[in-house]
Design a protein that fits this description.
- By secondary structure, this protein is mainly alpha-helical.
- It has a domain at 1-92 and 109-220 and 496-523: Serine Threonine Protein Phosphatase 5, Tetratricopeptide repeat (Alpha Horseshoe), CATH 1.25.40.390.
- 41% of the residues lie in helices and 5% in strands.
- The strands form four sheets. A two-stranded antiparallel sheet has the order 1-5. Strands 2-3 form a two-stranded antiparallel sheet.
- The termini are far apart.
Length: 523
Amino acid sequence: MKREYIWSLTTLATVSMLFSSCFKELDLTPKYGLNTEAVYSDPDNYINVLAKLYAGLSITGNQGPAGSPDISGIDEGFSAYVRVLWNLQELPTDEAICGWNDPGIPELNSGTWNSTSNFVQAMYYRIFYQIPLCNEFIRYCSDDWMNEKGFAAADQERIRVYQAEARYLRALSYYHAMDLFGNVPFVTEEDLPGAGFPEQIQRADLFDYIEGELLELENLMVDARANEYARADKAAVWTLLAKMYLNAEVYRGTNRYADCVTYCQKVIDAGYSLEPNYEHLFFADNHLSNEIIFPVTYDGLNTQTYGGTSFLVHASIGGSMPAGDFGVANGWAGLRALPTLPNAFPDTEDGRYIFYTDGQTLSVDTVQEFTNGYAVAKWKNVTQAGEAGSDPVGQFVDIDFPLFRLADVYLMYVEAALRGGGDVGTGLALFNQLRERAYGDASNNAGSITLEDVLNERMRELYWEGHRRTDLVRYGLFSGSAYVWQWKGNDPNGTSIPENFNLYPLPFADITANQNLVQNPGY
């Protein structure tokens, strides 16, 4: 199966959980059991720990969907990386709302969170669980360590490739920290566990650090489309750089649109292609698509989690929706679209208009009522052949989450070009490729485009994929009153939210524990 590689290694990777939390000084070797010295003395163990780093984006612990969570303070099923990221990127926007009253959800729906809100804390701690795991792995990939242990030249070369991937995963988590939280604690492989409280890095300096890492990795990673499925390569690096450069004015007050275009073009030239059928990007066998650049993988048998795409499928089913049509046994009746999302489509002929409307109202007058708001039917645990996913119980899904895909790169290119970074004509051609896929022909192609057109097209193309909050912040529309939607600011008709809400707060507990940290303004 497509994920056999990742999961078979993850089952062996529990050792990585032991290291960062147990030892104050790494020159002290524990007397009993599996330890850092033993694990990293065998070059064949490195791939096992690397698998844990990738699995940190998808699963919640080492015992399946429940039993041994990586982070505490929140229900384990809620704590998965993609699930908390999705909630922070989608629920406070004009694309989605959730009818549950679980702690943290109402605050995200209404834009009323604070430094103790559950999902805000969970995202922060998920990020800062992932980063130390990467740091430790990177530390034990050093030439000095490998030479000391007498690793063969071929093993050392292989481990350097793994190290580059771990550095990429660390950069990805720091990117999310920069985007969501701004000024955050900063540690690298040079900082030994237990050595002291981390210093806080300023957002602009973190941008420079991530950029420097990615520019180095551009020459160290496996070529685009040449690595094993779901492992990072040069195209994943280029895409992350493009996303940083598109948002550079937000992150560090610098115009980097020309650089965004440059790195989008690298991805475009790498041999990816648009998936002919848009819906197939969100099916159980979407690993077959040549459009997905970097996915977070899921498997109904081997990577079972109540987060990720299992969450997106189940939580989107309720009312009169037949769960069997979506390849699962039941729905959780939580997530729906706010009316601004279906209203962004000028007609229902657009192939991306994938909503369930039977018995559903367009307006969300009552947040807790699932039938208020159109249901999003985009995520389906069925294959292109119409078969249900691999889990015979119908609980856990096989859909990979497309963290980065080519259509996003096209839209980044055209936006950056319109902002002065490149050729608008080339951007228009890319824009129209998406329109042609959506409608099946060129009848709805655009003759010219504006930045507003791009933002609207990003909504139609990328809805419920975890981009919307970042997009609205970049356009200056997330906070304030220039643009409102239902339940923004906890008002049924929408109202202003403070500008400081463009960033989430650092958790109160971390501010209290680490006097090096200064809270984001307004919290």
